[in-house]
Amino acid sequence: MLSSPMEALRAQITARLAAFDRREVPPAGGIRRAAVTVCVLEDAESVPYTVLIKRAPRGRNAGQWALPGGRLDDGELPVEAALRELAEETGVTGVDVAGLLDDFVTDSGFVITPVVAFGGRQEPVADPREVASVHAVPLERFLAPGVPRWEGEQLQMPLGPSIVIHAPTGAILWQFAEVALRGREQRVFDVPQPHWTRT
Fold first, then answer.
1. Which of 12, 58, 147, 169 is buried most deeply by CB count within 10 Å?
2. 3 state DSSP class of 97
3. In this structure, what DSSP letter does residue 197 have?
4. Helices within 69-132 (DSSP H only)
5. Which residues contact 165 (CB under 8 A, 6 or more apart)?
6. pTM
7. How far apart are the C-alpha atoms of 80 and 169, rounded to whole Å?
């Protein structure tokens, strides 16, 4: 029986992530840990897309583009935290984890673990306490000419009208595009962060 294009995509990405020798920052005292989800959903026409959020105009990283995610609670594992935050911020639940990308160490002292997951066909809804808006970025956009682009040493991921993502989120999405979508090895731990993301 032939699989659907979405099932084939999921199998391909899962296999690529399984073969990827990811860089993990080992647990240590004093390290602040966070996790995010690169969540792949499909729209009504079965077009796969990822979920991006714009943070609420108050609180930590106010107004910035981000992946759903946040700090680990005491005793929580990165995957648990990533999926909890995904549910809290966008209402997306019942996802299947495909794999993990490299841990990213931020200039503000966080270690971010990116989790790649598939959630089928469901409608993300912003939690107004934390999220100003939720945006769908088709996967094909990650493979478009000019993505990524560089302004001096600064990485930019132009993913839609008025959507330009910088590190650390931009670095995570660049690695997702290269490793999961293109099947290439790409490390991003040395991608510099703009000063406004260091909060």
1. 169
2. strand
3. G
4. 78-90
5. 52, 65, 156, 157, 159, 173
6. 0.94
7. 19
- By CB neighbour count within 10 A (0-12 exposed, 13-18 middle, 19+ buried), where does 180 fall? buried
Q: Tell me the β-bridge partners of 33.
A: 111
66-112 per-position pLDDT tens digit: 999 999 999 999 999 999 999 999 999 999 999 999 999 998 889 99
Burial environment of residue 124 by CB neighbours within 10 A (0 to 12, 13 to 18, 19 or more) = buried
Tell me the two tokens of residue 57. 């105009």
Task: Tell which phi-psi region holds residue 68, choosing left (phi > 0), alpha (psi between -120 and 50) or beta.
Answer: beta
Phi, psi at 141, each rounded to 5°? -65, -30
Q: Which of 113, 117, 127 is nearest to 55 (CA)?
A: 127
Q: Can you tell me whether residue 52 is helix, strand or coil?
A: strand
Torsion of CA 155, 156, 159, 162, to 10 degrees: 160
Q: Which amino acid is at 93?
A: T
